[in-house]
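As a warm-up, study this chain.
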Amino acid sequence: MDLWMDTTNGIFHGERLSSRNTPLSHNHDDIDGLLHDTFQNIEGETGHVEGEIDGLSEDAKIFFKLVNEGKKELYPGCDHFSKVSFIIRLYLLKSLHGLNDVTFTDLLDLLKEAFPFAQLPKSFNKAKKMIKDLGLGYDKIHACPNDCMLFWNENAEKDNCSVCGSSRWSNEGDGTTNASSKIPAKILRYSPLNPKLQRMFMFPEIVVAMRWHNFERPNDWNIRHPVDREAWKDFNSMHPNFSRDPHNVRLGLSSDGFNPFRTMSISHSTWPVMLMNYNLSPWICMKPEYMMLSMIIPGPSSPGQDIDVYQQPLIAELKELWEFGIKTYDAHINQTFQIRAALMWTINDFPVLTMLSGWSTKGKLACPTCNYDTCSQYLKHSRKMCYLGHQAYLPPDHPFRRDKKYFNGEEDDIPAPTSLSGIEVFEKLHDFNNVFAKGNKKRR
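Now compare it with the structure written out below.
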């Protein structure tokens, strides 16, 4: 199953998705609303852009050209569909019902024969290019079947994994010699972050919303948003050049596994990686249309601590955004500027914390806050670890500290452990060597 879901503007699309397995279901009103959100507030906003078109990047020119196409009627007198919205609706049906490319092209031919005045693309490839110009495309990156490495950048031309020696192709042993006939053993689907951020600033209303954290938030010492927390303020003090420009984007990363087949009889774990935009106000920053799907890590098993391997393209892009930024067009002030981005934190449950941070959340030192001061005890009869010493986080004069009956039979006067700072963590991991590959979980 080839599933791709990009929620940046609330549009879902894919290559092949069986309707009986899909977790997605939309009625026509939902889709119309999503398409409306995609082209929200563009009426009358592109006239001044045409006069400045020479100053825009090529991506911006393509996007605004598509926006103008999106205003055209599907046929004279049609007020329900535009040319672009109808193609997106057809593409969605293809994805949900598993139509192949030839069937989609034949359907277009039938529609053009029945409605000769309708503005429809000539083939599936033309329709796919239109979808890609919206910024909803993604890259296919081949991966080692044992999660050791990606066949990407300097390893793009290799046929075997440099770590475990596994073949890049799943059908290499069947005598296939034609390179175009080879089937990759594992594919990472990665959607670049830069076009998503650039696209957000192409709508004046979203540009204003992206600066909410700096100009519009109430400053009354109440905590409504991460901008009111100490982590955000400390980051601003450490990086004044970054925080000086309110356009610069603060991101959060979230990931978890799910079974796309909606049945417990099949053991399968696919891992989407999402990015959240915390420049936006609290009432929209968690809306689906503003979340960004960065990648889909394929199953059938969890990548485990080797999730680092799959995050390499995202990390490379984030480093570029942090150090250099990208040229972006601001539709609100009709100027281009250099936008930068920073990944502030990750959002995950406790088991996934092991994968994203590398700190084991089980065993003797399971608490990432207490780190080496974790108070743990092994219960030999139940063969489990239990964790004590929680009174350490209470005030020194709290009655629970002297309560022997309901705890472990001892008074507790131990002070709370001191959390490691980011600098201390960096120093401890500076010479850390991580060895990837399934079955080789050694960490030196």
